[in-house]
Write a structure and sequence with these properties.
Blueprint: E1 2-7, H1 12-30, H2 41-46, H3 55-63, H4 67-73, H5 75-95, E2 99-104, H6 107-131
Helix pairs in contact: 1-3, 1-5, 3-4, 3-5, 4-5
Length: 133
């Protein structure tokens, strides 16, 4: 696995970061983190939080520039949002040279990366359950 730059590729990091900014602004301005109902179907059906419960409230904390508050609510969502933000900034900087950030992953590494993400999501879910989100 190696991090590299690619010429002429779609700036996925910048696009995802732009979508994240729109989502964070929508959550912050519309106060979507304060809805009187839960939108999580899993939580509605089981009474337990899902692995991503607290993400909307975490985005509200990021909108308020409080990453510590975001990590307390949902570390996976906060880390993912901050990682995408950094990727987007890197893409924007590289776009001035006609390049974007790319990750070259072999099929074997891809499988290991997928298992790593699933493990991180499972650990995050255990945290969310323990924290009572």
């Amino acid at each position: 696995m190696r991090l590299m730059t690619a010429r002429g590729a779609f700036p996925l990091g910048a696009a995802l970061a732009a979508a994240g900014v729109v989502a964070a602004v929508a959550v912050g301005l519309l106060h979507l983190d304060r809805l009187p109902i839960t939108l999580c179907l899993f939580k509605q059906m089981t009474g337990l939080p899902c692995a991503t419960c607290g993400s909307t409230r975490a985005f509200a904390y990021l909108y308020q520039l409080d990453p510590a508050g975001a990590f307390r609510l949902n570390p996976f969502a906060a880390l993912g949002a901050l990682g995408i933000a950094l990727w987007g900034l890197a893409d924007l900087a590289l776009l001035t040279r006609g390049r974007v950030l790319a990750l070259d992953v072999t099929p074997g590494e891809s499988k290991g990366l997928a298992w790593g993400v699933l493990l991180a999501l499972a650990v995050n879910w255990a945290y969310v359950l323990a924290a009572g989100q």
